[in-house]
């Protein structure tokens, strides 16, 4: 453990790879450790990423890793960081294989676990005709008969948003009493119907949604379903390192609180990507990883040469 990295990046999705590129170009000794389970791998293509619209996620991450190979100060490892703590003014991270690494800075780019409801048939459609984000998948679903599986305010918000892409939308509340009269009025006004029956299964044909099957055995033909999904931290790592959680949002249960420079509550620990994002998307993850890396370089230069950096932490998502 004599070696001390300038930065260890935990997670090699869009945020982590983007940060590693900036750190490599800044000639910083960087170790990226990635477990290889980026959240959008189930999707055929990335919707809405400039220069890569529709590109396969796996291909993007592979290209990102290839680009890093040019920079000799960056090492990329496949693995999982299982624990982290402060040590000697820096940090020690432990991987699942028992390896310990010391570092001056940590960038958490671990993404989030997307938790859709547990519904038979959903797994095989996830990332295709069962989706969570209209900006990612709405274009492919345009003008199709769609459903929104959600309750309460989330159902109203998702259905009204999805109305941008289709004028045939049914809200499925999966049980009675989930909407207020004012919600119903708003949906009716937008020509969105509501079905309160219990949902039993999503039926598919050739890998695409064909119908929603209700508990009473009847079916509703649909080509796509937006499923209300909540994001959760994938591990206790942020917590172990003292990075405080921000307030829950309608989408994310426990995002990490960061300031405008992606600094967490623990000095020296940064967080980027879905873990700290308000809008989970690839473009935002790339941007935040890039910005966090620049802030990390500046913080190292502040320690080493007195470069002035902003002091306070004004949380952008707390
Ligand atoms: C099905 C689906 C489809 C989507 N489609 C789109 C789309 O079309 N367009 C769009 O803009 N966005 C889309 N998104 C959202 C997008 O995938 C995320 O916003 C983006 O991937 C976030 O990037 P990230 O780097 O923060 O996290 P991720 O891409 O999830 O990467 C995090 C990485 O960290 C690794 N990791 C986690 N914990 C550890 C650990 N302890 N040690 C080592 N490695 C670890 C993970 O294995 C993973 O490889 C989609 C999401 C889903 C779920």
Short description:
With 318 residues, the protein is of the alpha/beta class. It contains seven helices and 17 strands. Helix content is 24%, strand content 26%.
Which term fits the overall shape?
Answer: elongated
What is the oligomeric state here?
single chain
User: Main β-sheet, in a few words?
Assistant: 7 strands, mixed
Helix content: 10-25%
User: What does the average pLDDT come to?
Assistant: 95
Distance between the ends: 36 Å
Radius of gyration: 22 Å
**Ligand kinds:** flavin-adenine dinucleotide
Which structural class do the helices and strands define? alpha/beta
The count of helical stretches stands at: 7
The proportion of residues in beta strands is 25-35%
Which runs of at least 5 residues are low in confidence (pLDDT < 50)? none
Order of SSEs: EHEHEEEEEEHEHEHEEEEEEHEH
What is the number of E strands? Answer: 17
